[in-house]
Amino acid sequence: MSLHGSLKSTADFGRCYEAYYPMLCMIAYEYTRDKVLAEEMVGDTFLALWEKRESLEITTSVKNYLIKSTQNTCLQYLRKKKLQIRRISDETEWEHIPWSDDYPLGQLFEKELSDKIAQAIETLPPKCREVFQLSRIDEMSYSQIAGALQISENTVKTQLKTALSRIRNALRDYLPIVLILLANGRV
């Protein structure tokens, strides 16, 4: 189906914008965690759609096309931001400039991720949480943990594997933030 055929007029395009804009902003917000930035990403998506309307061929529904386009716009933005952060880090002797007081969004990302990690740890079963904290926070070896808790090293490994899996699962929606922090060596 051609886009031009489904959005024949400015009025049709306007109705499409009104119908999908709120949903697309929610999707973009999941990537950016910033309302204004999310709205900008969706605006860019609609602008690109308008500019290509005469030649664009859509093989799925307009809704699915817009969702995918919004996701791609957000991912492109995050990749670009990651490269900018890396370039700034490479070009200066002050490695943490993007996360300074002049970069509140970075601080917000870092705090939000830290809070989510703490929440994920708190939801672990008690023994699993204890093994995780001894390993990752107290930096104890498997044998030290096994001795302290009077359990086998295999049990320590199993509990730690379970903890990491649950934490990873709890943080799966925060991949964009993790990518930005990784780019700056913060994780």
Automatic annotation (TrEMBL):
Pfam families hit by this protein: Sigma70_r2 (PF04542), Sigma70_r4_2 (PF08281)
Similarity remark: Belongs to the sigma-70 factor family. ECF subfamily.
Keyword terms, alphabetized: Sigma factor, Transcription, Transcription regulation
InterPro entries attached to this UniProt entry: RNA_pol_sigma-70-like (IPR039425), RNA_pol_sigma-70_dom (IPR014284), RNA_pol_sigma70_bacteroid (IPR014327), RNA_pol_sigma70_r2 (IPR007627), RNA_pol_sigma70_r4_t2 (IPR013249), RNA_pol_sigma_r2 (IPR013325), RNA_pol_sigma_r3/r4-like (IPR013324), WH-like_DNA-bd_sf (IPR036388)
Transmembrane segments: none
Gene Ontology MF terms: DNA binding; sigma factor activity
Transcription regulation keyword on record: yes
Residues in coiled coil: none
GO terms of biological process kind: DNA-templated transcription initiation
RNA polymerase sigma factor 70 region 4 type domain mapped to chain residues: 115-166
Protein name: RNA polymerase sigma-70 factor, ECF subfamily
Domain RNA polymerase sigma-70 region as annotated: residue spans: 17-82
